[in-house]
Structure formats: C-alpha cells, structure tokens
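Homework-ish question, so no full write-ups if that breaks the rules, but can someone show me the predicted structure for this set?
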Amino acid sequence: MTLWNRIHSTLRPIVWRSQMESEMDAEMRFHIEALAEEFMRSGMPREKALRKARIEFGGVERIKEECRETRKFKFIEDLVYDLHFAARVLRKSPGFTGVAIVTVALGIGANTAIFSVLNAVLLRPLAVNSPSQLVYLQEQWQDIFPGLSVGNFNDVKTESTSFVQLCASHDGGFNLETQDVPERVDGEYVTANYFTTFGVQPIAGRVFTEEEDKPAHPRVAVISERLWRTRLGGESSVLGKPIRINGVATPIVGVMPKSFDPLLAKVDLWIPAAFTPAELADYDNHYLNVIGRLKPRVTLGKAQSELCVVAQRLAAAHPIDDKDRTFRLQPLTMALLGDQRLSLRMMLAAVGFLLLIVCANIANLQLARARTRQKEIALRAALGASPNRIVRQLLVENIVLGLAGGMLGVLFAFWGVGWINAHGPAEVPRLNESRIDTWTLLFAAGVALLSSFLFGLAPALRSGSTKLNEVFKSSSNTVAGGRERFRNFLVVAEVALALMLMVGAGLLIRSALLVSRVNPGFDASNVVVGRVGLAGPDYRDPQVARQTFERMVVAAAALPGVESAAAVSRAPLAGLGGTNGLLAEGKPLDPSNLVDARLQIVSPSYRSTARLQLKLGRDFTPADTRERILVAIVNETLAHTMWPSENPIGKRFACCESGPGGRMDPVWHEVVGVVGDVRAWGLDRQVRPEFYIPLLQMPPAAWDWVGRTMDLAVRIQGGAAPIRELRSVVASVAPGVPIYHLSTMQEKISGTLERANFDTFLLALFAGTALLLSSIGIYGVLSYIVAQRTRDIGIRMALGASRGQILGDVVGFGMGLAGLGLAVGIAGALVATRVLSSLLYGVRPTDILTFCAVSLLLLLVALAASYLPARRALQIDPVVALRYD
Amino acid sequence: MDKQLELLRGTLDMLILKGVSHGPPHGCGVLLRIQQISKDRLEIQQGSLYLALYRLEHQRWITSEWEESENKRKAKYYRLTAAGKRKLLTETEKWNRMADVIAGILHTTPGKV
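A: Not a homework solution, just the prediction itself:
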C-alpha cells in the first residue's frame, strides 16, 4: 500500500465524515434485514425474525463506535482530548513547564532572529523585476576584478547577443544645494537603459530618454523617493524644476521608489552617463559597474563563453589595455551578497547548535519526568490505552510545550531583531530590513514542531513501551539501563556541541583582540578626517582645484588647537580608491610586468600629519613641483614587490601619464623615500602596494580619477574634534561645498571593525548560552542519578565508604561525561572551525591556546555542575535512605 | 447441531477473504456464507465482522461498491483486490503449514519422542 493510499484512507473519514456515517448506518440496517429474511425463509414470522436478527447482530451503536475507531474517525476528537490533557499535565508541574518553555523559547528565539536577518539579507529577492535573470559583469585581470572600461563596455554591448539589456553605471558623489547647508549625496552616472534593465518604474515622472544620455544634452536627474521626501518635501511640483547639483542647475525628471536600490549602494541620485566620444574610445580606465539581463533560455555559461570570444578580440585589438584580460559573469545576487553568506551561515549553524542543545536538555528533563510518571502511564495502559495512544499523548504534550516555547521565542526574536536593527553593522546590506514576517513566523512554527519531535520522541517511545508489571513490581528503584545510557549520550552530545560553539567564539574573540592590537602604520590618535569634493564648473580647472585644497589646508592648520593639516586623496580607511599599473625601469612594457599599486596624492605635510614612519630617504617638500623631476614615495610592500633586496631610493618607475610621444612614451617617477606600510583598507586586511605623489606634481588627468575629491586630515593637540570649525573653514574657502564623513580616525577604525566585533559578540553570546545549558544538562543528569541511587549510596555509607569516595564517584561520573563530550567536541571543532578561517586574523582555526582555554573553562563549569549534586549525595543519611522503601 | 466453536484469534480476516473470494457478497452474505460452509459450527460475532471488513478495506485487500441486491435494494458488495488474492493465498498456505505442524506435534505418541 502506498503512502498516499494510507494517507487518503486515513483522511477520507475525516473529510467525508457524514457520508461515511450514513453509509455505515445503511449497511448495517441492510445486514439486519438480510439476516431477518434468512430467518423468514425458514418459516419465522417477520416480526420475530427481525428481533432475532437484531439480537444476533448485537448493539449497533457499540459496533459503529468500534468501527469508527478502526476507521480513524476519532482522530480529531482524540487530538482535542490529548491537547486538554497535555495542558492539564503541564499546568500540574509549573516548575518543569516554565523551565522547559523558557529554554525552548531561547533556542527558537535565537533561530528565528537569525533567520529573519538571513531572510532579509540573503533570501529576499532584490526589489527588481525577475532578479534571477540579472547578471553582474566584471573584468578579470591577474587576481583582481575591476569594472569595465567604457570602450570594453561599449564593444561588449554591440558584439554580444546574450543580453536583452546591458547597462552600466559608475559611482559619483554629488554636492546638493537645496537648503542652507549643502549636502553630499551618493549617486550614480547611469546609461539610459539602466532603469529598464532592472524593470522598475518611477513613482513620479519618467526615466531618462536615449537623447538625454548624449553628451550634448543638458544634464537632467532622477532622484530617490527618500531624497524627494526629505529634501524636496515630496511635492510632485518639483518635477521639471531644476535643483543645484554640483553647482549646476539640473531639472528633475523622475522619482524612483524607495525600494529601488539595485546595487545595494544606498544611492539617492542618478545622472545620465552620457559618454563622450573620447570616453567611448577609452579602454584604459576600468571602473564601470555593468549589469545585464540575460535573454530567456540563455544560460550563464553560454553568455560567459560568448564573452570569452569578445575578450579575445578585445585583447587582439587593444593589446596594452586588454591583454590577459577576461570577463567574469556572475548572478547579480551573488555579486552583491556573496560576501554575506559565510558569516550568516555561521550564525545560522551556531543557533542550530544551540537549538540542538536545548532539545537535548528538554529530552533529558522529559526522561527524568517519565520515571516519575511511570505509574500514571502504566495505569492508563492497564485501563486500555494502546501503546500508540500513549506515545501520541506524550508527543502532543511535547508539541504543546514546543509551540508555547515557540510563541515566547517569537517574542524573544522580536526583541532580538529590534536590537540587531539598532546595533547591527551598517555595512551589511539590507540588514535593517530584518523583521518578523510571515516567512519568519512559518520558520518559527516549523522549528517549534521539529524540536518538539526531537525532544519528545525518545521519551515518548520509551514511555509507550512501559511494561505494566515491571512498574508495579519494582517499587521506586527501577533501573532502566537503556534509558540512562540515552540520557548520558544526550549530555555528551550537549557538551560536544557547546564546546564547538565555544571554540568558534574563542577563535573570533582572540582574532578580535589581535586585530585591536595591530599597528595601523600611522598615529590614529588625535587625527580628524573629512572628505571634500570640489564639483562643478568652478573647479574644472585643475589649477583652481589644487589651490582650493591648498587654501583649505592652510586655513585648517591655522585653527586653534590644530597642530598640522594636510590633504590626501584617500585617507586610511576612507574607502578603496583607484590603483595604477606601475612599470619598473628596465622592464619591457607588457601588462604582465605591471605592478598594481594604490595611488595616493598628498600635500607635503601629509606624512608628518599622519605620522607615517619614514623608513628610507626623504619626505616631500614644497619644492617638489612639476618643473622639477617627478618624485614618489613608496610603501615597504611596493618596494619589496618591485625591487626585492635592492635599495629602492633613486630607482624609477613609469606610471600615471604618458609623455609627448603618445601612450608608449613613459613618464618616469623617481623614488625618494620609503614609508612604513599603512593598514589603509582596515586593520585586519592585507597591506597592498601603495605609492605617494606630491599634490604639486599631480598629473592634471588625476583630478578626474579622484573626482576632485580629497580628504582633509587634521592633527589636533587633544580635546574635542573641531568639527564645526572645519565645516566653516571649508565653507569659507569653497562656498556651497560640503565636508562629509567627518570624524576622528579612531571612530573610522572602530567603524571598520564593527562587523567583525558584532559577529564575535553574537557568537560569544550563543556560546555562553550553550555552556550554561549544557552545564544544566550535566547537573540534571547527576541530580537524577544521585536521587535514584539514594539507597545504594546509603548502603555504601553504612558499610563505611568515606565521603571522599562518594564525592569522587559522583563528580567523577559527571567529569567522565564532560570529558567524553570534550573529546568529541574537539574533534568536531577541528573540522568545523575550518570554515571560519577567512574570518580570522592572525589565528589559525586550530589555535592550540584557544582550544586549551575553552576546554579548561568547560571543564571548570562541568566540575561546578557536578559538585552540587555530589554534595547532596554526601548529605544522605544512611538510616533514612535505607528506610526509604 | 454441535456446540459452536469460538473463532481462533487472527483467523477471521482469513475467513472473510475466503468468503469474499467466492464472488462479491454483501456484508451479511459473507457471514452467512462462512457459516454455511462451516455448517454453523463456528461462532462469529456479527459486529466483529464489520470491524474486520473495514480493516481489510482500509488495507486495500478488499474494495466495496454500492449495488442493487437481488430484491432491488441498495447493498454494499465486497470484492477481493489483487493484493487481497495474494494475501489469501499466503495466509492459506501459512495456515496449512501451521496446522500440519501442530497436528504433527499433537499426534505424537510418547514412544516416538
């Protein structure tokens, strides 16, 4: 009989209940009449025959009832009865029920909270049309994945046939002058088909036309709903009206809905990319985000292989720019959220472990209770309850427990999600969209049911097989060996799981401690940094832009309490910044000889303001102008990479611009100094090659690379950061230009660690809970054993066993369980913590110190948990114990 | 008439399958048929007949259908399914073997052991 048949014939009576009732009735009436006819055939009168038939048939109602039982009519009635009974039983032992519900709620709450984060960040589809068809296109060169050059983008767009739409965007910062205080807004330059690629309509106005995406067309803008509501009052009258963006009056043509954030970059403004002919011919600058929508039935692999062909043609056509360059195509969701997977999955695994520990604990409590309930259950069995019925009753009891815990757990999760929204790291995209919704509730209900079975099944099955005579025969000391072994197994499993969580948390804590002690490579105390972008026609002249920054530096340095001030294209931790390919003198010009290094343009006072360590050579001086030889300072990593085991001072490299002879005419920079490495990307990130060029020698084109945007760094003597003063310095030198991301260097450093510290905190919290729960598990089992063996212990004491022996036995047993769990847990942790390795800094996943410290902590807690029941064993009075029965 | 024998436990299902196998009878017919074949030597609880019928139907060894009886009344007729036929065969074979074994044991005289 197939499963479906079984389900069908079980469910049928419930669904068509009245029909089956009447059929049964008709069938039995027919039976009696047929029987009567049989009797009448032998000459009996009808009345008498009918009576005889009825008597022979027996009580119709009783038979029907029995039939209903066979046909599972009673399923629902039994369930309702079981629920009532379960509620009564649970109410009768409020202590157990309370502890169990709170423990289950902890487990389910943690799982639900983490799931709702996972759901918001990873699972919820992007708020665009059919996100699964969207792909993200990058170039691949050596081990880096830059954006596309405009030339490459344009060629891919015309040559490939895999995409319905292929659009491009690149980031831009915009100074917005809508109110008194200018505001810096993150925006994007986008191709006209950007919005249609994502298939999202504006809530007001329209998106760009192809005509507006041409360089000759006056600039227009599409803004976000957020910007529209907060800065422009949400009036539809703003459409068509100009606002001042980067010093240019720009009409707004459309407003995109709040949910439209396809690249998860919190962008508020879109401007047509309007590539110029010069840009379209540029294959050298790789910075475009390219998003495509695949045609139906075109797979990722098919599109990828087509792109390989395009890449080969591009490499042949533009050998300097595109040699060894290929394309990487990945689903958009993967490109945007791939980084979030590891730590979120780690969290989900952690709460999963926690839930298992919770289940083990409750199963243990239930098994202990099953002993005291043996007589009750045996009595019910004696009164005719089938084993199935008893198992079901106990399962229902556990499901009631699980669901009650689940409801409280959802409440916990509600608080947890609120807390995560308030304190979670800002860098995780969509984290603030976490909430308890239908999916989370379904998840919580599923987890509640699953855990009810996990912790309820074993005790229920054991009780269901209770043998009547055994229970009443033995007084109170039935020793069910199997049951005890199972409880011990549960404790060992709990300890092992707790240890794995603790090792994970321990590794992250140790890593966080090591990171906090990393030398950033500069003196981060008493430094205040803010970014300034000189946008608009007023600053198009590089000369003007440079002089404006120089004036700001001078004015900032003159502020009271300020030691020195400097300008730098990207202060440490202020974002990625661009890189350039460097060619050491003496090597042939070939892409494989280029060293990719981060360019830093600095005012002469920068090194002394940030207090970078000068390892070799000299610092820049105001005399390093473009009329003199071009100079550069490199970091130690770059020096080692380009000139291993040679003195880099006086060496030359080509980069950044080309001489009068065209692209193959190198412009040489002479290394005059070497500075110590700076952890510019974050304390826990690897240092990359980096080189510094003086502001006065900056190639004019570089102003476009940095978007005329620099960081103003100020070293103060101490005390409060001069935030207001710096704002007014910038406002006085460059009216209408905001200074943003203004904060102390210390704040920026802790900002980059926010994510790691948050993960560490959460995991430590889970591990702590796990430790607590598993110690309760040890305590519970030992208390049970001591209570059960009261008589044995009494006898042993009466026979002269010393208190030390008794203590040693009980504690030894507890420590034995803990030790076994420890061994299993260490083995598991050695395997499991490998996935952590990319989250760790300076610690190997098999770090001995962490393993030892965690094991010791666990053993100490286990010792305490064993000692309490052991002390109770010592207080047993032999006389009382022996009289006990 | 001899005193009626009480049915051995677990044999009712087998007897009903056998009763049904002789062409589709209704509930009462199954009972009458068994009693007729056994020459009224077996005592079968009428009620337990329906319990067994529903159980066998639930297990898909028999199926039922409402049809018109010989005296033009609706009655529920039972039929063996393929699984039911197999079940009857194996049960019969099992029973025969069991009966042989038991008879063998009971017929043993002390001298033979």
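Now go work out the reasoning yourself. Hint: The domain at 5-112 of chain B is CATH 1.10.10.10 (Arc Repressor Mutant, subunit A).
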